[in-house]
Design goal:
With 190 residues, the protein is mostly beta strands. The protein has one domain (2-189): Pectate Lyase C-like (3 Solenoid), CATH 2.160.20. Helices cover 13% and strands 56% of the residues. It contains 1 helix and 15 strands, in the order H-E-E-E-E-E-E-E-E-E-E-E-E-E-E-E.
Length: 190
């Protein structure tokens, strides 16, 4: 737990530094500080087997019979999260004209996602992705953001992992064939 908090703190520090640079390049950006009022919002999602995470926060993935997405966080941030399903991919993004300052462990956005099957996971935002178990024929995991992906028990025929950002991927379980590509400054443990 302490390791996750340390990693998330480093990620948030990197995000805040790079967000400050965004102000200079986008005059129309508005800065938001998360409120202390925490809400949960369930989004209507279905028919996806891939997740693309382009926001900031913690992602809790699980495999089940009914697909769902619940977002928990500050009441002034949750409505700014854009979600849609396109080409069987659940896309999660934040409005590009927003810079968030003041994240901490109390007001961090949490995305709770239930998938029937997961064939692809793309993380281009900042955060911590956790999944206890996944059974799938094939998984393509791409990380171009910063953070950590942890999958405690994967059962798959093929696994492809690409880490071009700053982060770590830890996967345990049984995989028949794995392809790992690390052109960035990340680590992969399979």
């Amino acid at each position: 737990m302490k390791t996750s908090i340390k990693i998330l703190s480093i990620i948030l520090a990197v995000f805040l530094v790079t967000s400050g640079c965004g102000i200079l390049s986008n005059i129309n950006a508005r800065t938001i500080t998360p409120s202390d009022v925490i809400i949960s919002e369930t989004r209507d999602v279905s028919s996806f087997n891939a997740v693309s995470m382009g926001s900031v926060g913690k992602v809790l993935l699980s495999q089940g019979n009914t697909e769902s997405l619940t977002i928990t966080g500050s009441d002034n941030l949750v409505p700014l999260i854009k979600t849609n399903v396109s080409n069987h991919t659940l896309n999660i993004d934040t409005d590009e004209n927003i810079i968030v300052t003041g994240f901490n462990t109390e007001n961090m956005l949490t995305f709770t996602i239930v998938v029937k099957d997961l064939s692809a996971l793309t993380v281009s935002g900042l955060g911590d992705v956790q999944m206890a178990t996944l059974s799938t024929p094939s998984l393509d995991l791409t990380m171009s953001g910063a953070g950590k992906v942890q999958l405690n028990q994967l059962t798959a025929d093929t696994l492809m992992v690409t880490v071009s950002g700053l982060g770590s991927v830890d996967i345990a379980g049984g995989v028949s064939q794995a392809t790992i590509d690390i052109p960035g400054a990340g680590t992969v443990n399979v």
